[in-house]
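For the sake of transparency, this paper describes our internal protein records without simplification. Because each token names a local backbone shape, the row as a whole describes the fold. One such record is reproduced below, unchanged from the form in which we store it.
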Amino acid sequence: MPMPNVSPVHDRQRRAVLPHVPMRPLWLCRVCAADWPCQPARLLLLMEYRRDRVALSVYLAGILFDATADLTRLNPQPEPSPAELFERFVAWTARHDTGRREAAADSLEETRPGGRR
């Protein structure tokens, strides 16, 4: 799968920012050595998939499949927790607009007959 999250932003010396892509099979960021997807990678992925959050989740589910195989092979005892891996690779994609959904639900409730005002 291609790793398309390259930042178009340039630093102060006019050099392109390095892409925050995973170093396999360790699944660490090649730039900052944090667990991938690191915060910069997440931001870049959110920007790239801003119009299709479902496609981002599907893409990362495929990445989760590959990462699970790699990390389980590298660390058989104790093997990585499925919940932790899901949280790391996929679950964060749904958090971005949770506050907006709750606010919209509250707003809808207030406008319904018998709702709060």
The mean pLDDT is 82. The two ends are 50 Å apart (CA to CA). Residues 23 and 30 are 6 Å apart (CA to CA). Helices lie at 39-48, 53-74, 82-89, 98-111.
